[in-house]
What does this fold into?
Amino acid sequence: MLRVPQPLRDAGLGVLRDAGVDALLGGALYPPRNWHQTVSDLHPPEAREAMRRACAAVVAEGFEMRLDRLESSGPEPGRIHWRFVPSAGRPEGLGQLSAAVRAQLRAQGLVETQGHRPHVTISYNASRAIEPLRFGPLAWQVDTIELVEAAGRGKDYRYDVVEAWPLRASSEPPPAQLGLL
It folds into this structure.
């Protein structure tokens, strides 16, 4: 997975607070320490070493993902999914990283059955849907992949890092704002 760094989690919480939608979530807010972008399916504990070998063999560049919209989906109150998404769609770097991860998992005999849209879940269990909310982009420089193991239950649910691997430095410079001309 790709874990959202603390400064970006804080900024995301600020977006919720500034828009006044944090109160709508209440206890249904997914713990920010767990905010992430998925890049593989869940696999059983027996696959741990194969997943470790696969992740260690991934060669991909870091990239930027710009989250700038909050949206929801799901028809059933208490089971509505809220997530931050990039309105520009899937970053090219995420597509390349996902393909590299899938290829290495396949090389280890692990089958991936689903793709993963670019998003960061902030609630799986919201009581109501919301209209899409645009906000100033939260720029996330993705530079590490993590192999994690789910632990705990309820409010203690978390992802413990098994191992982490840095991605290669991006060959594209980050966007810069030009001064006045």
Observations:
- The mean pLDDT is 92.
- The longest strand covers residues 63-73.
